[in-house]
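Can't paste images in this forum, so I'm doing it all in text. The chain is below; anyone willing to post the predicted structure tokens underneath?
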Amino acid sequence: MNMEIQTNENLIKKMEQAVTVEICEGSAKIISENRVFYNPVQQFNRDLSLSVLSTFWKICQNESEQRKSGKKVAGNDFSDGLRVLEALSATGLRSIRYAKEVPGIKEIIANDLSSAAVKSIKENIKLNNVEHLVTASEANATTLMYNSVDAKSRFDAIDLDPYGNPTMFLDGAVQSISEGGILLITATDMAILAGNNAESCYAKYGSVPLKTKACHEQALRILLRCIESHATRYGRYIKPLLSISADFYIRVFVRVFTSPLECKKSSSKQSMFYECTGCSTHTFQPLGILKPNGTEKNPNQFKYALPVVPSVKENCEQCKSRYHMGGPIWTAPIHDQAFVDMLYNLIQTEPYKNLETNQRIYGMLSVIREELLDVPLYYTLEHVCCVLKLQCIPIVKLRSALLHAGYKVSFSHANKTSIKTNAPSNVLWDILRNWAKLNPVNAKHLEKNPIVKAMFSKEPENTYNLNDIHPEANPSSRAKALSRFPANPMPNWGPGTRSTLMIGDEKLPKKIQNQNKNKQKRQNAETTGESQSKQAKTI
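Text version of the structure:
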């Protein structure tokens, strides 16, 4: 027992020893102590975020010009500059980079709950000579946002990059963001969002995730639906500009507007979804439907309707298996094409093309520009071939067959072998059945595997062109071998260790709190048992 106490004391002493490190990133230089959280892995996140903010500022300028010409444009006029809140700042690096690298900044509040972190932020602000733009704040992030809900004190951009899930901050964020302002939100609890703990995901995000191969896009759609659900409570709605899955986290960039009418459309942007437990075919069940109800004078009118359920039969039509049901998830587009195009053009100009992660941003945006916006989720090549126990079909051949058949197909930025298509699932399976005629399945799989047997009990309804390569089958991003899905550059690539300052200056991290906890419980139980035994003997 004494050894355990001594070990804990040694760990605490090591943590209390402040090791000062000088960090240079972009145009910023900061002094960081080991107790203040800094993660070099997130440089891509920071580079992309400042590029997004710069693009947003260009949009604000364009909207200001349109207002001057007499056009009605939604949102506030940000022509006098952007007021930014970094709610969880740690070292202040992100805020300093925004101040030095993003045009149009009027004021940045770099906030943190920890007094030691705020001290570090103040030192770094002074070191980088940005005192005129960046102000350090020591406050609870939610309290700070709730105190800024009136129109005069709202923020034009709010950056939320927590360690874990951001849901506790969303209610304050959607209220304290200005009309037409932008939210930049990260979630790193990917295990929960990807379906490992469905009950935890429902408790935090209000959605049930499935263990689908499209888990990374599913995570984005769960987060977007969660933000929208917070916004609509206050008559506000979101417009996703860019949603990315990268490394160990997801990051979304959304604008927030106020319109009770648009809020009514929210149910039509969300769906429950079914996934077959055998072949993974997925089907969507919208929560609401918008039906055209226009006239000659008002052609854009519509009416709200309830969907007819269920959208699937009890058993899958392809393999006769049952379904799992998940959701609700966001099924409207997760990117805005015009915004992505503007951002794509921006990063090819000075000074953004000199960003250290520029090539990765360029590659990812290239894939996103090719991505189908109106198709939720995707299949993966290796999984659909594994379901049928087939020799893997070349991705270009499969894409060609879909294109020759008159359907659209794209990759998803979230998966290297993704198949995102507007073709019905039976078309995809029919193409693979045609491929199986050229590359027969092992007979033992047809005999022993009930899924394979059921899938091949149906003959293909049509034949598909598997020989001629369609001109659009190999997209530009793939043909140019861009950095689309880079490998992890070093071992142990991940979110890092939570800083002691992120959980309070006095409190020890869970790693130390929980050390030998099971052993201590057993010892406590034995001690309790001995004392009870002594009491019994005394009696």
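The two ends are 31 Å apart (CA to CA). Residues 43-68 form the longest helix (26 residues).
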